[in-house]
């Protein structure tokens, strides 16, 4: 089956409270896989619930393949005064290992891109990618994204 045909079998839907345990487990797995970080599951779960409880913070989407949850991403929003619009940030991307290379992320991305194009205040999509994650970078480029030329800096605070 072609990638396009496989992708057409994927349904993207908003995540709900019933998805929280799976989203928590996937977030912890993603952090371990990509950054070798062990996250506290209770903290991650509280963070996911905070987004579901306050939609202004963001949104989670779940991709289902043949009715089985196969992958997810989270959107967050950043106001741009330069553009008088919102950037939608794609974060917390995870595709279950048994569903990889089947168009799950592409279906999620295309869903988000179509929604963004239909939302007048959205000026574009952005995401972070690890410098050494060449496979992910190729995927994003295949979908039409380009390197924006920025480096990210941070200054953690004691916060939650």
From TrEMBL:
InterPro entries the record matches: Acyl_CoA_acyltransferase (IPR016181), Bact_Acetyltransf (IPR050832), GNAT_dom (IPR000182)
Residues annotated as domain N-acetyltransferase: 10-160
Acyltransferase in keyword set: yes
SUPFAM superfamilies: Acyl-CoA N-acyltransferases (Nat)
Gene Ontology molecular-function annotations: acyltransferase activity, transferring groups other than amino-acyl groups
Keywords carried by this UniProt record: Acyltransferase, Transferase
CDD domains membership: NAT_SF (cd04301)
Name of the protein: N-acetyltransferase domain-containing protein
Organism: Arenimonas malthae CC-JY-1
Classification of source organism: Bacteria, Pseudomonadati, Pseudomonadota, Gammaproteobacteria, Lysobacterales
């Amino acid at each position: 089956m072609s990638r396009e045909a496989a992708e057409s079998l994927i349904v993207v839907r908003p995540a709900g409270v019933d998805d929280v345990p799976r989203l928590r487990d996937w977030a912890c797995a993603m952090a371990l896989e990509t950054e070798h970080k062990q996250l506290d599951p209770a903290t991650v779960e509280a963070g996911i619930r905070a987004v579901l409880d306050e939609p202004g913070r963001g949104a989670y989407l779940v991709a289902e393949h043949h009715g089985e949850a196969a992958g997810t991403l989270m959107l967050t929003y950043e106001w741009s005064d330069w553009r008088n619009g919102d950037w939608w940030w794609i974060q917390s991307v995870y595709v279950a290992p048994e569903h990889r290379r089947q168009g799950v992320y592409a279906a999620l991305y295309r869903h988000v891109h179509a929604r963004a194009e239909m939302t007048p205040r959205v000026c574009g999509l952005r995401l972070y990618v690890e410098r050494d994650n060449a496979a992910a970078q190729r995927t994003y480029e295949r979908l039409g994204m380009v390197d924006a030329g920025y480096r990210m800096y941070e200054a953690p605070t004691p916060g939650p």
